[in-house]
Fold this protein.
Amino acid sequence: MTVLQEPRTESHARRYGAGFLVKLALMAVVDAFGVYVLWAAWVAESWIILGAMLAMLVVVNWVYFSRRAVPLKYVVPGLVFLFTFQIFTIGYTGWVAFTNYGDGHNSTKEDAVTALLAQNERRVEGSPALPLTVVSDGDELGFVVVQPDGTTAAGDAEQPLEPVEATVADGTVTAVDGWEVLDRQQIIARQGEVTDLRVPVSDDPNNGSVRTQDARTGYVYLPTLVYDDGADTMTDTVTGTVYTPNDDGQFEAADGSTLDVGWRVFVGLDNFTTAFSDSRYAGPFFQIVAWTFVFAFASVATTFLLGMFLATVFNSPIRGRKIYRTLLILPYAIPGFVAPLLWSGLLNRSFGFVNQVLLGGAAVPWLTDPWLAKLSIIGVNLWLGFPYMFLICTGALQSLPSDVLEAAKIDGAGRLRTWSSVTMPLLLVSTTPLLISSFAFNFNNFALVYMLTGGGPRFEDASVPLGHTDILITMVYSVAGLDGTAPKNFGLASALSIVIFVIIATISAIAFKRTRSLEEIN
Amino acid sequence: MTTTSIAPAPPTAPTSPPRRRSTGRWFAENGWRHLVGVVFVVYAVFPIVYILSASLSEGGTLTGSNQLFDTISTANYAGLADTAFWSWVVNSVQVAVATAVGTVLMGAAAAYAFSRFRFTGRRAGLTTLLIIQMFPQMLAFVAIFLLLISLGEVVPALGLNSKVALICVYLGGALGVNTFLMYGFFNTIPRELDEAAKIDGATHAQTYWTIILRLVTPILAVVALLSIIATFGEFVIARVLLQSESNWTLAVGLYSWVSSLLEANWGLFAAGAVISTVPILALFLFLQKYIVGGLTAGSVKG
């Protein structure tokens, strides 16, 4: 381990030992990956990713090849992940909360224009029929057409038509460089894809695309909308309506009608206003906030009381104490996702064990009645959570100073008095930080609620998919529309996340003051 | 310690303790504790017994599982082979192990730096970590989802529906959650050891890899374990990110069985639940002492 060596003045990292070679090899891998990402970001024109990656590469290389940044050598790997996947995402949540990101507002204005033009294409009357051959490039389908002037051109959904060398027989293409011609069988197998495919005529979306219905003849489809770059307007060529961009990130006509694809814009505090005062959201929102607090508080209170009771009971030496303790903490060792699922079966209204066996065939709606569902959630959480409290209370009881207890005894305090005036306060002092973090954890106990009741039963009056047992974090999930039951609304979901952040921050600030954990840092 | 600790005479029996205590007396003293113990052990253990029985029942329906140990058959376990269950097991193990290894490596290195070096920004860094610790990563799952959409357009391996991306996301939480736990433990290792090594000519890297890391093995084991348990049970991020069935983890997969057609899949779910519980339960029971120590040092089940 400690090889005796002459102390040297130069840095040891400069010696070309095994450690240096390992570092060099690792850095080579990291840099290779970094360069690959840079190139890919360049191709995909993702300038933010390109910039971020470049900055990271520079920092990482400087840290590991400089002699000055020794502490950073140890912190940087963790920091890279921390910044990308935690700090950045928190910041990004803040940004999205002030936009209307979501269904209908998914991307930039440029993308919205392209999508609008592509979606509103019609076959042009009297346009020439182009002899067409369906080809494929591995997975991607493409078209090869013979144009009116006799030249051939190929392209696919991404790549606009480009002139290619092809063998033409009987007016249609039979072989083409770089593509494989599909036979009839293959075309029938992928019929849907073929009729859905649109191959842009050129890079300019105003020029339309080639489409086919029968896989033999293609027609040029032109957008019925025309985008005027200079005036920044959309004009419908059929009706002549002119649409201009509005503040909500949509094209709007004079009569107030809008085109269905919009883009992301800043909407200021609109999302927060929606949560707090919109008729569809505000009612459920306040109910959910209240229930979230009740749930988190009740969870901590019930689990702590039961855990403390059991810890006190088993704090005196009785036979089999170890076995009792081991069996009592078993629920804690069950993976977090098994327990709620298991209980959702036990509490099932028609077939569950609780109703069928314990209650002799009653049909108690444990998970479908608003109040019983809330009770069930707290009950299941009690089963899940009391072992943890039992563990920490046992630990705290064992480390109570015995002289205080003796003093109480000498002063003539009875068992109950000792417990309420000495044991309990001391126990609370040592467990309060854990109770606060337990509160914060339950405040966001997504898996329990989502798996046990899915937030249900639904609010009857709400048009949004929210229910009586939803807590804030499951509301975020539903509003975000990630499971497909509601339209996606990332903006509002992020705004709700921010509300949770603020609540947690307040709780944490109180926790900080209480525990003065900061003092431990020296 | 003072030597004045009074003789530990039983406080309840100051006058001539009887040889045989009456049953009532025994009950008041200790017996009721056994009663409480038995009642709550039944409460704690019953659901576990139930799921074991359901996994062994022949029918595989929810109703059929209500007669405990009525029939014993391994049909449900055999039935798992026809589903994607085992690939979920593999996914879960891959993700949990990779995350645990990464978490331990990065967390230990950061704890070493904070514990052994004095540099500008150290205090601020520790405070920031303490604050970040308060905000669980899952709060930002919408932003994580959107971030991975953008990343996936550049590097498909880091996009949605990729286990590598999921591991990276979990590693994002590695520093915030575990550095403090390790930092405290690193501080208990005497600095004289480092100094001796330095005088002997060891570089900081040699000191770290060959001396410190060996002395802090217990906390590394605890962190690895807590990380495995947390990752194994993590649901919301995995559910949001992993989209195709073959990439799901156990948490996502088993949820899908129960949420759709509860009645029909119950036997399969029970068998799957038992299989996914056994390794965690075993780890937990064997390493109970360490986990309890780690918990009381300030972490919560996450």
